[in-house]
């Protein structure tokens, strides 16, 4: 099996994730600021936990080659992705330590601890099945948004988010990560118990992504600013 089999096995949830209303409003520039700010604050906390999950991939790896493959993601998370969030939130007078002191919302706790648990109780393939929707999905969203003529770049307050995930650097790193996941999946039969378990893990993480977008939209009435 490969990553495309995982996507095909949960197509409905996958499309609900990659074409969520939050993404569409982001592309048009119409997303309400409180929703984006809540999403970014929670995503900051999400990325912090995700760095732990990629560090767990180093711990779970059996070979030096697999240990080295997880390291660029730890770096990208702690540097480029998280600093985008910190610099955007600075516009609201929020510092990195303010963000660290924020409470984790339920969807943030559920998603990140699910991924860590899948990795801790399983092996490195289970961990990557839980991690995969995040990078593969955001790369697909970035590509879709940059190819879609309805995406509004000029004057869009969320243009940095779009260019971060549509950009070559991010796209290339996901392509490399996906090739690595495919190597790990290649020896597993899609119709085996193991294959079905991996689909469940991948689909659960995909459902968590949908809930994470929704958590952002639901912040509209919370009036955070
Ligand atoms: C909820 C949520 N899901 C996915 C990403 C994107 N993302 C997070 S970690 C990572 C891999 C290392 O770069 C990627 C692509 C996000 N930011 N927030």
Automatic annotation (TrEMBL):
UniProt KW Hydrolase keyword: yes
Protein's GO biological process: thiamine biosynthetic process; thiamine diphosphate biosynthetic process
Signal peptide feature range: none
UniProt-listed PANTHER family: BIFUNCTIONAL TH2 PROTEIN (PTHR43198), SI:CH1073-67J19.1-RELATED (PTHR43198:SF2)
Protein name: Aminopyrimidine aminohydrolase
Keywords: Hydrolase, Thiamine biosynthesis
Taxonomic path: Bacteria, Pseudomonadati, Pseudomonadota, Gammaproteobacteria, Oceanospirillales
Pfam families: TENA_THI-4
Any GO MF annotation of the entry: thiaminase activity
Functional note: Catalyzes an amino-pyrimidine hydrolysis reaction at the C5' of the pyrimidine moiety of thiamine compounds, a reaction that is part of a thiamine salvage pathway.
GO cellular component: cytosol
EC assignment: 3.5.99.2
InterPro entries: Haem_Oase-like_multi-hlx, Thiaminase-2/PQQC, Thiaminase_II, Thiamine_Salvage_TenA
Family to which the UniProt record says this protein belongs: Belongs to the TenA family.
Pathway stated in the Swiss-Prot or TrEMBL entry: Cofactor biosynthesis; thiamine diphosphate biosynthesis
Reactions performed catalytically: thiamine + H2O = 5-(2-hydroxyethyl)-4-methylthiazole + 4-amino-5-hydroxymethyl-2-methylpyrimidine + H(+); 4-amino-5-aminomethyl-2-methylpyrimidine + H2O = 4-amino-5-hydroxymethyl-2-methylpyrimidine + NH4(+)
Sequence ranges assigned to domain Thiaminase-2/PQQC in this UniProt record: 10-218
